[in-house]
Predict the structure of UDP-N-acetylglucosamine 1-carboxyvinyltransferase.
Amino acid sequence: MEKIIVHGGQKLVGSIEIEGAKNAVLPILAASLLAKKGVLNLESVPVLSDVYMMNNVLKFLNVKVEMDEKNKTVSLDATSDLSYEAPFKYVSKMRASIVVFGPLLARLGHAKVAMPGGCAIGSRPIDLHLKGLEAMGAHVEQHDGYIEATTDGLVGADIYLDFPSVGATENIMMAATLAKGITILENVAREPEIVDLANVLNKMGANISGAGTERLKIVGVKELHGTEHTIVQDRIEAGTFMVAAAATNGNILIKHAIAEHNRPLISKLEEMGVSVSEEEEGIRVIGTENLKPVSVKTLPHPGFPTDMQPQISILQLLANGESSVTETVFENRFMHFEELKRMNANVRIEGNSALIHGPAKMHGAEVAATDLRAAAALILAGLAATGYTQVTHLKYLDRGYYHFHQKLASLGAEIKRVDESDVVVVNKEQLSEYHI
Ligand SMILES: CC(=O)N[C@H]1[C@@H](OP(=O)(O)OP(=O)(O)OC[C@H]2O[C@@H](n3ccc(=O)[nH]c3=O)[C@H](O)[C@@H]2O)O[C@H](CO)[C@@H](O)[C@@H]1O
Ligand SMILES: C=C(OP(=O)(O)O)C(=O)O
């Protein structure tokens, strides 16, 4: 198993490029299923394990997928006859593959996808996705670990989501593009990734308005076709580097970052005393020696993103006083705190809130990533701690961060990724072997 070893204490200084967003590219890859004609060409595709997984699902469904890692492009040709079934082997590896369900149903009138199940951060049901598709006339059944839906043709409907679920909004919006008539979808997710998906669907010939608001209007069309699209920048990767600057009292320019997408994070950073300024080339974040404590509550966009909760908690640990974080989106997203306690974090969990007593004198330890953002948070903690931190279970990190340790190293971090079997005990002498 590989691990990342961080020698903390360096201020991170410099500028950094951010990849295309994982959470935008995954549904956009799935949207290729809707194009009966032409090829969907994507640029700024992040080279992530999740992208390979989605490509594999699509290849299994008979989409021709060509990825060029060097140029970060993918071309998808779904003009052949498609299969309607995505088996467990593929779907179980990545929850987000459920977004093939709506497009398959719309295109073929039949979709059978293995139940995605939960993951470390929560149970993650898909009832809202299914309720929406049923309202459009799909007949949905669950059997033998699969969800299967059939329809003689989806029909536009008025649908109200009980919760603004990102995945349900994407699945229903994609299905509605080819439905007969008009779909009005209310209380939808407003994330920038939803807007990116709606933009690409419209370029493919769909008729969607209202993306980014609480109400979507989708006028069904007969057919969609290929197009070209550049994936929106990853606001969560950008946010993670903003926190890296703040956690190391550094100075980082996050190139081409879109402040509008990160308002809730920027507002919290400023409340903590961190300087955030918009420059021509991007967003500059300059840390402070005296971080102030803050309360954070995760909410659907434009509230504070749950995908930044583990990372900002590192700043709360370093802040001077009592902070709190309340997680309202996922029921089990505090696992990083148990690992952080090994690094001297002083945290008390009360229901869905974590009460954080700072400033913690963080020291290095061996810690295991429990999910994607926890992995990033533990590495950030290692940057701020004294001594050496070793982070294992990097498969989570690779789901969502491209070249994370290389990017941190380019900013001055002493960080190395090694094969665990190569390093048993870490001390300064051994680390010098790895040129940390
Ligand atoms: C690939 C992708 O884009 N992943 C993001 C997406 O996940 P995902 O699309 O899975 O997240 P949702 O917005 O659907 O889930 C939010 C909450 O709604 C609940 N729920 C959802 C659907 C449903 O049918 N029933 C139901 O109860 C979930 O269990 C969860 O508690 O949005 C999350 C919330 O911003 C982010 O953390 C994930 O990074
Ligand atoms: C929870 C996340 O992703 P996913 O929905 O793909 O698990 C995330 O990106 O932090």
Notes: The chain has two domains: 2-19+233-433, 22-230.
